[in-house]
Amino acid sequence: MEKEFHGVFKFGVGIATDIAQEALDEVREMLDKMPIFGKRYTTKESEDELKIYVDLAGVKKEDIDLSLYEHAFEVRAKRYYPTEREYKIFGELPTYVKHEEAKAAYKDGILEITAPKLKGRKVSIE
After folding, report:
1. Quick check: is 123 in a domain?
2. Residues 6+ apart with CB under 8 A from 112
3. Residue 7 exposure: Cα atoms within 13 Å on the Cβ side
4. Is residue 126 part of a domain?
5. Element (DSSP H or E) covering residue 68
6. pLDDT higher than 90, residue 24
7. HSE-CB for 122 with a 13 A CA cutoff
8. Does residue 114 surpass a pLDDT of 90?
9. Which residue, among 93, 104, 116, has the nearest Cα to 66 in the 3D structure?
10. Cβ–Cβ < 8 Å for 42, 53
11. Does 13 lie in the same domain as 64?
């Protein structure tokens, strides 16, 4: 009787493990399809310009869409391998920039955006 109980118990645990693994696989698949939000960038300032480095490992250059404003930026990108994944990255900049003069380059999974800082002007007070 004890042998039969252990056999049934082992069989039940095996089924439960299989069900749990299937559920975990479904959750992983669902998470892989969800867009990635969050801070995936760093900024570096010099006296005259601002550089933004965005981590987009595995994304092809043609799958990146960049919008730059005076005080913020937005990157939308899609990676297809090993699983399809969308990136939506929005960031406020630490300083205002001349967005119309900005340049961007993509190399080794890093999008580098360089823009001159927008300088304020002195106003005399009457």
Report:
1. no
2. 51, 52, 53, 54, 104, 105, 106
3. 4
4. no
5. strand 64-68
6. no
7. 2
8. yes
9. 104
10. yes
11. no
